What does this fold into?
Amino acid sequence: MTSLAQLFFDAAALGGIYAMAALGIALIFGVMNLVNFAHGEYIAFCVFALIVPSTDAAAVMFLGKAPALLLIPLILTIGALVAMASEYVVFRHMRKASPVAMMISSFALGFVIQNALLAVYGGRPKAISLWPELNTPIDIAGASVPLLQLIVILTTLAVVTGLATLLRKTRIGLEMRAAAENFTMARLLGVRANVVITGAFALSGALAAAVALIMVTQTGVADVRMGGHIMLVAFIATVIGGLGSLPGAVAAGFLIGAASVLLQAFLPLDARPFRDAFLYTLVIVSLLVRPQGLFVPNSAKPRV
It folds into this structure.
């Protein structure tokens, strides 16, 4: 029987990954009313930035050889720059388009990034050894917890606290909150549209890069499709939490992580391969009970 402490750490670590990915999506939706489905490809791009471009099956470290104190800010910067570039090249020219048109554009952008990675790196997954010592388990309250899980939990708390401080205590944060409430009125009152949107994309890209570092350290694999699953779960978390609600995205990310871990622990052995079916059934039930999400932002519009 899995101990309660083990379940807690597993759920908190997995939920932290989902929460950070969901935050990146919720930030963009809040300021642009855009569900950016290219977010998963930002994650894959940051992972492949660690290795030398090659279609060979074996990966050779490139940026991944840098020490952690240099590598972490470098990858976060790359993630932010990729997201900012996509905003400048694609989404800035579509601000007057419908949300559906922008969403389709994000799908197209994701396919462009994915196929560019396929052309440069090939389609075979590559093994990467990045900070393997972080997967060494340590005993805490009777639970065997990899050091990486503790880092994920602490990083998520730091990100949430830092983002809350940014939104409440800085000018750019106040402008983002105003834009999320009523973007047209905020512009009339002097909010700098380009700065706000570019800042939101930069934060979103940096969060994608953080998720990329966690995933590649945890799995030891670089795959051009690795961002797809995390993007799907993060999108579901933003919907369950309430589209545009940052606290809702974080809460729903942790809830999905906890539900996934509990189902894996308590389902009968024969049913565990179908865990995701049970998980998404719970998602459907939650949306039937509360279709507007757990936290409804003030800017939310009534749905017909």
